[in-house]
Amino acid sequence: MAKTIYLCGFMGCGKTTIGVKLSKMMGRSFVDMDDYIEKKHHLTIPQIFAQFGEQTFRQYETEAIRELSHQGNLVVATGGGAMTIEQNGTLAKQNGIVLFLDAPFEDCYHRIAGDSNRPNAHSRTKEELLELYQTRYPLYQKNSSYTIDASDSPLMIANRILQLYNR
């Protein structure tokens, strides 16, 4: 069974866009972890945050990583906070490869500003998001197998990941 590839990084770094391209190139199934959690719990991410809080959502992410790690041969776009938790990074690395998509804050911010489906983005100012980005950045690095420069086009980034994976 081929190892699952987990893409992590800040909100708006391109995990889903790159993940879809990469999964097609590799002939693998793609899973957006937020979508997976929404389907499993029959609630949107904003509803989970509102009804149960962020801590419960983070527990759902850990469950999702555990469940997906047993399937193998996937490309998974994790949530923006999933790999800030050491347990999640450890779990994902035991059963796959974790790639940190390192995109500049301004690029991420431009993509997420005003997105009501992102509770952590929607409720914060640009300055607060920058602070969150700076807090999460070293955690992404620590809990990943590799850091990938995510400032190119999604296709170029997917090609770079494919070359790395095939080494």
From TrEMBL:
Q: Does the keyword Protein transport apply?
A: no
What Gene3D superfamilies does the entry give?
A: P-loop containing nucleotide triphosphate hydrolases
InterPro entries reported for this sequence: P-loop_NTPase (IPR027417), Shikimate/glucono_kinase (IPR031322), Shikimate_kinase/TSH1 (IPR000623), Shikimate_kinase_CS (IPR023000)
Q: Per the UniProt record, which EC number(s) apply here?
A: 2.7.1.71
Subcellular location(s) of the protein: Cytoplasm
Instruction: Tell me the residue numbers annotated for binding ATP.
Output: G12, C13, G14, K15, T16, T17, R118
Q: Where this protein primarily resides, as one coarse class?
A: cytoplasm
Q: Which SUPFAM superfamilies does the UniProt entry name for this protein?
A: P-loop containing nucleoside triphosphate hydrolases (SSF52540)
- Report the cofactor remark: Binds 1 Mg(2+) ion per subunit.
List, alphabetically, the Pfam families matched: SKI
Any single GO molecular-function term of the entry would be: kinase activity
First-level EC class: transferase
Alphabetized CDD domains for the sequence: SK
Kindly tell me the pathway this chain contributes to: Metabolic intermediate biosynthesis; chorismate biosynthesis; chorismate from D-erythrose 4-phosphate and phosphoenolpyruvate: step 5/7
Name the domain of life: Bacteria
Entry's family note? Belongs to the shikimate kinase family.
Please describe what this protein does.
Catalyzes the specific phosphorylation of the 3-hydroxyl group of shikimic acid using ATP as a cosubstrate.
Q: What is this protein called?
A: Shikimate kinase
Gene label: aroK
